[in-house]
């Protein structure tokens, strides 16, 4: 065994020369050009980028976010029709109230109630508020004529375009459906 040890060469460290600095290159994207993920056309339809708004606690007025934070929001079809001039401001506001009561939400911002003093005159239970909102919805729904209900349900409650309604394949039918939408919302104004 001593002979085997003598034959072994001692460890010698190899010296390496410093390699020249090269630019870093990126590998090509492994996905195809058509694969855009969440930025595809179907996902960005009706999306708008808006400033995140903060509310001043002292005055209650909105102010621009100092950090420059922006948010994406999907516009409802009622808002699009309002911006196109097809609906008035009152009709768009009534449609928003109708949708909020349909969804069981309170008609105002729930975060606005944080600073309020609870005096016991009003119920603050969210389930009761949801039931009250649904009661408001059914009261509003009864006022809408039968011929206008399918259009209002399609556009306001389900947030779908008029062109998506059955039988609305051309512009003349779209005008008929828009007239029914306007008539139904005008009754609620």
Structural key phrases:
189 residues; mainly alpha; two-stranded antiparallel sheet; two-stranded antiparallel ribbon; 8% strand
Could you explain the architecture of this structure?
By secondary structure, the chain is mainly α. It has 2 domains: 44-74, no CATH class; 76-188, no CATH class. 38% of the residues lie in helices and 8% in strands. The strands form 2 sheets. The chain has a two-stranded antiparallel ribbon. β2 and β3 (62-64) form a beta hairpin. The longest helix is centred in the last third of the chain and has 18 residues, at 126-143. The radius of gyration is 31 Å and the shape is elongated. The N and C termini lie far apart (105 Å). The model has no long low-confidence stretch (mean pLDDT 79).
Structural class: mainly alpha
How many domains would you count in the coordinates?
2
The low-confidence runs, each spanning 5 or more residues with pLDDT under 50, are none
Count of individual beta strands:
4
Series of secondary-structure elements, N-terminal to C-terminal? HEEEEHHHHH
Overall pLDDT score: 79
| Count of DSSP H/I helices | 6
Q: State the share of residues found in helices, binned by percent.
A: 25-40%
* Net shape: elongated
Largest sheet: 2 strands, antiparallel
Beta-strand residue percentage: 5-15%
Q: How many whole angstroms does the radius of gyration measure? A: 31 Å
């Amino acid at each position: 065994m001593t002979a085997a040890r003598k034959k072994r060469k001692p460890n010698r460290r190899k010296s390496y020369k410093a390699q020249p600095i090269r630019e870093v290159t990126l590998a090509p994207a492994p996905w195809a050009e058509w694969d855009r993920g969440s930025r595809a056309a179907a996902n960005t339809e009706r999306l708008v980028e808006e400033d995140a708004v903060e509310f001043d606690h002292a005055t209650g007025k909105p102010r621009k976010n100092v950090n420059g934070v922006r948010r994406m929001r999907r516009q409802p079809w009622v808002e699009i029709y309002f911006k196109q001039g097809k609906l008035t401001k009152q009709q768009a506001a009534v449609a928003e109230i109708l949708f909020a009561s349909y969804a069981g939400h309170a008609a105002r911002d729930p975060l606005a109630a944080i600073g309020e003093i609870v005096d016991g005159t009003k119920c603050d239970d969210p389930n009761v508020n949801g039931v009250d909102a649904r009661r408001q919805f059914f009261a509003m729904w009864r006022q809408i004529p039968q011929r206008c209900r399918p259009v209002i349900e399609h556009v306001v409650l389900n947030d779908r375009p008029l062109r998506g309604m059955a039988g609305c394949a051309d512009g003349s039918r779209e005008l008929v459906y828009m007239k029914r939408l306007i008539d139904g919302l005008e009754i609620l104004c």
